[in-house]
Amino acid sequence: MKNIVLIDDDRLITVLVKAFLKNSDINLVTFNCPQQGLEYILNHKVDMCITDLMMPKLSGFDICNELLEKMNTVKLAVLSLKKLSINELHYLLDNNICYFNKPLQPKKFRAHLESLIYADDRYAKTITGIYAT
């Protein structure tokens, strides 16, 4: 079983993603407070973190930076409605961070997520990218 943490300040997104992953081999822990989610990841075994980019006080980019610095074994993915700048896209691609745009489509999201979480590290680097879900 893989452990994934989802951090999104929108409670509806955390409820929906939990429903998308129902009956899967994924243990999903959700947080609506970015600080609490980051603290959890830093103190537990987590295979992947999925975070919203636009949140108050602590952005998804802040969370990614912290995890890349302290826990570079955690796979990273971000969710956003925001149109990304070229620099933001380069940051995600350079750091092998997967990007999912909102609104999420359940079947596509689950398929892409499962391909990322179950891929070995060498393969994951080749499939990390921008997904129009």
Structural summary, described in words:
The chain has 133 residues and is an alpha/beta fold. It has a single domain (2-131), classed as 3-Layer(aba) Sandwich (Rossmann fold), CATH 3.40.50.2300. The chain contains 6 helices and 6 strands; from the N terminus they run E-H-E-H-E-H-E-H-E-H-H-E. It has helices spanning 11-20, 34-43, 60-70, 86-94, 106-118, 121-127; strands at residues 2-7, 26-31, 48-52, 75-80, 97-101, 130-131. It has a 6-stranded parallel sheet, sandwiched between helices. Helix 3 links the parallel strand 3 and strand 4 (75-80). Helix 2 (34-43) runs parallel beside helix 3 (60-70). The radius of gyration is 13 Å and the shape is globular. It starts with a strand and ends with a strand. Residues 122-128 have low confidence and may be disordered.
Q: What is the fold named in CATH at topology level? A: Rossmann fold
SSE arrangement, N to C: EHEHEHEHEHHE
**CATH hierarchy, class:** Alpha Beta
Low-confidence parts lasting 5 or more residues at pLDDT below 50?
122-128
* Overall shape: globular
- As a percent range, the share of strand residues is 15-25%
CATH superfamily: Response regulator
Q: Count the beta strands.
A: 6
Number of helices: 6
CATH architecture descriptor? 3-Layer(aba) Sandwich
Number of individual domains:
1
* Strand arrangement across the biggest beta sheet: 2-1-3-4-5-6
Biggest sheet: strands, sense, closure? Answer: 6 strands, parallel
Helicity range: 40-55%
Radius of gyration: 13 Å
Report the span from N to C terminus: 24 Å
